[in-house]
């Protein structure tokens, strides 16, 4: 099995820019929908016909793709509940407003649009000789989650999560412009001390200008101002707005994506024509911090307490109330 740093690197790639289409589509229907209670998930693994999975198998594959399997049982349970909640919400949304590209499926394994899922073959490739013991842990988490989901006002919540925060999560309002009551900024103390929380990227002025033009082709060929300057920050400290070339304002999320930064929580400095971005956190920073959940679990917190901390106001319900 790969070591913890290697595993976190695998999952960080999948979590850095969690696709918004699968989170915010159908955010506020007039009436809460109700998914069918057949316990199945239809997933588009390849172009063509959807593949039918049991909900248990889907949860196992989703958690395997989203969190290291050697995390503590209570953290894995929390991730499993989010996977179940996500599947229930996706099923409601596709029944209400089908996505033509899904060909009748509830979701897809395309991580540019939907949350990640690993097939059994991918799990074995990742964990090798440790696969059976990892599957046993994931199966236990899935069994717990099968009868539980997170809801708000009778509907499965937007199950947002990220790899690690800078010590405080972001609100959906500040990151996505959506005021979602249970996706607010909360403390995640200790995240900032995690080795994987910090990263640094540097560019020469020409490199920085080239990357910015590649993402924002409307920028001028010549410029007189700094290629990038921070204009404002969110309450939790991420860059809310930045100015590039003195010509255009973009969100911190847009700038981070253009430059391949791990998150929009960064400091920018310039010296002798070199621009240095010191970044904290990995992902969009909304919802549950996975390393925060793991730290809470190691500290004796239960799954219910972890989810209650990161999703204040949401309720952990028996899934029979929403299925």
What does this structure look like?
By secondary structure, this protein is an alpha+beta fold. It has 2 domains: 4-160 and 288-321, no CATH class; 162-286, no CATH class. The protein has 11 helices and 14 strands. The chain has helices spanning 4-15, 21-24, 55-66, 73-96, 120-127, 131-145, 172-176, 205-215, 252-259, 290-298, 303-310, and strands spanning 40-44, 51-54, 107-108, 148-152, 155-156, 161-162, 198-204, 228-233, 239-244, 248-251, 266-271, 274-280, 288-289, 315-318. The strands form 5 sheets. It has a 3-stranded mixed β-sheet. A 3-stranded antiparallel β-sheet has the order 5-4-14. Strands 7-12-11 form a 3-stranded antiparallel β-sheet. Helix 4 crosses helix 11 (303-310).
């Amino acid at each position: 099995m790969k070591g913890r740093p290697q595993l976190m690197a695998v999952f960080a790639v999948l979590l850095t820019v969690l696709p918004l289409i699968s989170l915010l589509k159908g955010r506020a229907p007039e009436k809460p929908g109700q998914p069918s209670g057949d316990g199945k998930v239809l997933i588009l693994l390849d172009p063509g016909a959807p593949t039918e999975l049991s909900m248990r198998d889907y949860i196992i594959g989703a958690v395997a793709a989203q969190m290291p399997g050697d995390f503590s049982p209570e953290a894995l349970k929390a991730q499993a509940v989010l996977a179940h909640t996500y599947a229930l919400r996706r099923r409601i949304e596709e029944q209400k407003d089908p996505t033509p590209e899904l060909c009748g499926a509830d979701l897809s394994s395309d991580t540019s649009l939907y949350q990640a899922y690993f097939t059994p073959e991918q799990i074995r490739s990742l964990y090798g000789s440790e696969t059976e013991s990892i599957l046993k842990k994931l199966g236990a988490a899935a069994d717990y989650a099968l009868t539980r989901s997170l809801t708000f006002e009778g509907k499965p919540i937007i199950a947002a999560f990220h790899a690690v925060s800078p010590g405080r999560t972001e609100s959906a309002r500040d990151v996505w412009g959506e005021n979602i009551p249970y996706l607010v900024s909360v403390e995640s103390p200790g995240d900032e001390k995690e080795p994987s929380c910090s990263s640094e990227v540097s560019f020469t002025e020409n490199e920085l200008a080239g990357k910015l033009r590649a993402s924002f082709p409307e920028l001028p060929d010549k410029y007189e101002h700094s290629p990038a300057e921070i204009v404002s920050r969110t309450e939790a400290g991420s860059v809310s707005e930045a100015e590039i070339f003195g010509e255009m304002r973009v969100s911190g999320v847009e700038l981070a994506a253009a430059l391949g930064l791990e998150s929009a929580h960064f400091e920018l400095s310039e010296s002798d024509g070199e621009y240095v971005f010191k970044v904290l956190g990995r992902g969009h920073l909304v919802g549950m911090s996975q390393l925060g959940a793991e730290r809470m679990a190691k500290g004796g917190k239960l799954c219910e307490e972890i989810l209650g901390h990161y999703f204040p106001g949401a309720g952990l319900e028996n899934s029979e109330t929403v299925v």
